[in-house]
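The protein record quoted in full:
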Amino acid sequence: AWRPRRAQHMASHIDQVLALLPFEPPYMEAAGMRCDFVGHPIAAQPRATEDEARAFRAAKGIGDAPLALLLPGSRRGEVTRIAPVLAETLIRMVEARPGLRAVLPAAAPVADLLREMGKGWTIAPILLDPAEGDTVKRAAFRAADVAIAASGTVSLELAAARTPMVITYRMNPLTYAIIRRMAITDTVTLVNLVADSRTVPEFLGPDCRPELIVPAALNLLKDPRAQDAAMALTMERLGEGGEDPGLRAARAGIARLPSR
């Protein structure tokens, strides 16, 4: 979506690509490579149950309060840029929805940074330490009523949990201007791309502002099923309920080996 010429560079070194996303094969095949879509690993990962989500809410003292999931990314640079936006977004959401709670699952590379940044937040979210493990994280995703997330693969994790989402990203203005000129799609969110939909709102670059993000998140709290169809279609197209992507990848690789 951002640098289609990469396929041309790959073609001089690579014979076959095992693609995780269903829209990738045409780019690879146009460049002269063989490409098999094998499904995405997220489609085969465990899902939290409703009981686990309720247990998570009880353990964290959330109860039946509306719950927002804050996901500022996993790299220090993006967290430094996006976390302050989410802090102000949370303040405005609580003003509009008193009693709203927030959970912030911290990725291991930025956990210490988020702890330090959190000391300055007017309203502190519940910070999930990465040591609590994936089971707790999945329960948090399932328990949340809405997520505000940095653009990336996390949108597929949210789709797997059927958590309505708003996607945002902030970067250097010059970098953003260059990338926008290079882009060949009008969306960066994987759920939108895989489902061929535009139901997930995006606030990127100069639009990564609380005054724009908050209304979109509040709308999802009012209409939590608005993205259900797009999320379900995304997971279906990624292979949910089908053969394990690892097995499909192995079979695709074997099928392409030269016969003796």
User: Anything to note?
Assistant: The longest strand covers residues 67-71.
